[in-house]
Write a structure and sequence with these properties.
6 helices, single chain, mainly beta, five-stranded mixed sheet
Amino acid sequence: MVRKIFSRITVAFVVLVGAAPVQAQDEVAIRGQVVAEADRSALSGAQIALRDDNGQQAALAATDESGAFSIQHLRPGVYTLTVEHDGFAPGRLQFVLKPREIKVVTLALTIRPIPQRVEVSASPVSLPSTYSPSSTIVRSAQFDEMPAGQRTNLPDAIVAAAPGMIRGHDDFVHVRGQELALNTMINGVSFWENPHAVFSGGVTPDVIDVANVMTGGFPAEYGNRFGGVLDIVTKSGFGQNRQGSVTVSTGEANRRNVAGESGDHRDKLAYYLAGSFFQSGRFLSPPDPQAIHDHGHGGHGFFQLDARPNNTDALRLVLMLDGTSFDIPVTPLEEILRPAAQTRERTRQQTAILGWSRTFSRDALLHTSFYQRSSRARLLPASGALAAVADTDRRLSTLGVKSDLARFAGRHTVKIGIDVVRLRPEEILFYDDAGARRFNAVIQVPHVDIDPIAFEHQQSGGQVSAYLQDSLNLGDALTADLGVRVDRYSLVVARTHASPRVNLAYRPGSRATTVHASYDHLFVPPPMEGILSSSAGLTESVEEIGRPLPSLHPTVENQFEVGVIQPFSAGAQLGVTGYYRRGRDAVHTIIWPDARIYSYASFARSLAYGLETRLAAPLIKEVGLSGYVNYALGRVYLSGPVTGGFITEVHHLEENHRFLAPMDQTHTLTGGITYRHAKTGAWANVALEYGSGTPTEVDEDTAARVPGHFTANVSAGADVWHDRDGKRRIGLRLTIENVTNNLYKVAQESVFAAGQYSIPRLISAGVTVRF
């Protein structure tokens, strides 16, 4: 049925003909008012022009009798808005539009006393934004500058994007102390899989046009995961004109990458097609400085069709195929004593999204998406007398619809929506640790005794969510975003929860500095990876526990945030944000002994607080420099006892004291600087990363940590050939990762778990042909 629907829609796209104007399709919009600065009277008939950061005209508009205007169906990015009216000096305003943001602006024009000789600057004001002020925008050009090996895994690609993103235990990225770090949204649709390669096929950064990394101040539209929301807008053929590229790169550690893309538009139809294949001899962070049995390879396929059949409707169809196959790395000692104990994992993922936008009037916009995904992760068992036998097969079917209506009325910008998703997980798990016990006896290390387990179960459930949010203009200096989200979750356990959200932004005195504050009450359903087995009471097979634990419960959190944003000349901006998070039934990842089986346990309470600072400077064309610095000071605690799920450490069932969480890192610093030579296109980039170390073993009195680390990556590139108009180019690039060869331990949760080590110094080179 689903295939038949998508086939019919695809045919409908292809047969569309006509000469409608080319516009981008997205939920971003601008509404505003033009007034006279002297008496605040409305100026009707003012001419509005909007241009993107490349200077291309994005839209034209005119104000009505109340001085109001509205521009819809825009893509996120940097824009410059100009306004002209007879008898007044022209106004000009530059701002950034985030995914799904509805920007509110007021432009107050001054009277031009001597039009023939004097150009008086107007005083346009973009109202203080309440749309996740602590978020960070990442554009496609920034992903292009990253090493090809880093772009194969989305969490690794964005780990340096925002403050407080930590490379933690279990090879994952953690944000503000959250185990479920990333909620990945693709064109407004949220899927429930963890985007890390060990869980799913993931999303390739190659197809991202703009991504907004949100860590706080979440509008009511966002749900389910709140370590960080990665709101992605994919590339569109409307942004290309018979353009494409092919990139081939190679490097040490047997890393090979091939990627290509192509896009075009004609009248009201556009397509974008992308594909990539990669392989690496250092795919996961190994448990030893020497990477053994650590090969991985995979591929991504992406197709997007956009259409604008008339001036009121916009359609988008996205199809994705993603997959990986990789080894589970071992230590040199394991290679000697049990060479047959080598396991592999495969992930496969297919995704389809059909979106429709309808403009009912200048003041109303409807957006609806139908989405579907099938995913699978299979862990193949090891062999040999000294290895645990672990065989898992996880499948998830997702089918949903999301729809929201945005309405502009006076001081209010109201969005009301609903998101209905059906989830059908299926899990098969077999585990026998007899071989692992024998191996631990040989190397004389402690072990956990688990009786053989055979588990197979499938279940259907899902979630129905409704949300209402109102962005309220309370004057030229104060805005508020008030919202509430209600979730009815039903899978393993059933819960209904209401989540109020309050975001405030204020410009005290000066129209440059903005103070923002927010309160988010968050409802976080359990993770989908291993949700059935984690909630099946399998702890009765752990001999030290011997009884089943309750099912995993959703996490409930309260987050408070306050910060200051200070813009400077030339577009530079400094942001300082403090946050405080407190929750109950906090989820923590558990890895089974001698096996890459991931389960979860929920702890009674969690606490995280910190201070984050970000300084960003856009490209200064006169000198060709741009850069950023992120710094985070943080602390993360968990408190027992365990309230549900699966765990192997019996002391967590009884102890109720507070302890440092494995993802706690006191100091985290990332930064980068890029130089671009305008005439030749040559560029160079230096990226820095520092972490003070995460806990490795915790008791009531001390907390040992892995040593801190500091690393640097250097990249450079240039066009070695281009044609006369510059459209066809051949570019070369060279990347040196971990320049100082600082081979450090990323994390190690306890003495019972293997640590993870960073990559050594790796050199890679690539060539890109653009046509």
